[in-house]
Amino acid sequence: MKEWKQAWKLAMYEVKAHGILTYFLLVVALLVMTLLAREIFTAYVEKGLFILDAVMLIIPMTVAMWVKAKPFQYQRLENNFWASPYFITLYSLAIPKNILMKSRFINYYIWSIPFHILLFFFFYLISPDAREFFTVGEYVAFSVVWMSYGIAAGSLYPASDSGDYVSNLKLTVYGIFSFVGLFFVIGVIRFGTGHGLVYWTMMAAQSAPIITIIVSMVVAMIGAKYWLSYMGRHIDKTDYF
């Protein structure tokens, strides 16, 4: 518990370091995504457009990170080494590894979780289709599903702050395979079941909201723990200096 408290204090330094522009962009992103989500959800309910499946697999773990100032983002530093400059700076200060790692995860959750809570909240307020389809309890379950996914999959982001050696070719290949893999999964679910991934999470939230919430939170904890462990092993194998 002491490590988590120290990690929290360290994470808050970054939150305070961001200027007003970052928070302005975060508000703009929230407004744009809320309005966009309303239109996409309506099209999904009425026409079954698959784009919402793709959006929901990408947005919950990325949007809040796009607006962060460049020194805090994952980027190419030298040769083929990619990392967060801020992480490298902290690592050079001989901060205990566990505290450093946990601070990166806390920082990700500080940015991501409140953003998506507000996104789901405002979306429900302005979307007649969402209010017609879900009761409040069912919508909470649906929101928890996707926020839990954002925690489980999005924890890759703080883990990647520790850096990796990636050539341009390797990065391109990863990008292509990720893009193709994403749409392959969406396609298999849609053509195999007749409905998209978002549809089935909507059904789960409607039919068993409590169970859906519990399972989603367990998945989130497993995902976060995995990426935290991965980051620890990766740091030990990386030559930073």
What are its keywords?
mainly alpha
Secondary structure topology:
Blueprint: H1 2-17, H2 20-47, H3 51-58, H4 63-66, E1 75-78, E2 81-83, H5 85-92, H6 97-126, H7 128-133, H8 136-154, H9 156-160, E3 164-165, H10 168-193, H11 197-207, H12 209-237
Antiparallel strand pairs: 1-2, 2-3
Helix pairs in contact: 1-6, 2-6, 6-8, 6-12, 8-11, 8-12, 11-12
Tell me the number of strands. 3
Taking all Cα atoms into account, the compactness measure Rg is 19 Å
What's the helix count? Answer: 12
Beta-strand content estimate: under 5%
Main sheet attributes: strand count, strand direction, barrel closure: 3 strands, antiparallel
Order of helices and strands: HHHHEEHHHHHEHHH
- The low-confidence parts are none
Transmembrane segments: 20-37, 49-67, 79-96, 108-127, 139-159, 171-191, 197-224
Keywords: Membrane, Transmembrane, Transmembrane helix
Care to describe what's here?
The chain is mainly α. It has one domain. The protein is 79% helix and 4% strand. The chain has helices spanning 2-17, 20-47, 51-58, 63-66, 85-92, 97-126, 128-133, 136-154, 156-160, 168-193, 197-207, 209-237; strands at 75-78, 81-83, 164-165. The protein has a three-stranded antiparallel beta sheet with strand order 1-2-3, covered by helices on one side. A hairpin with a 2-residue loop joins strand 1 and strand 2. It is globular, with a radius of gyration of 19 Å. It starts with a helix and ends with a helix. The model has no long low-confidence stretch (mean pLDDT 86). Keywords: Membrane, Transmembrane, Transmembrane helix. The chain crosses the membrane at residues 20-37, 49-67, 79-96, 108-127, 139-159, 171-191, 197-224.
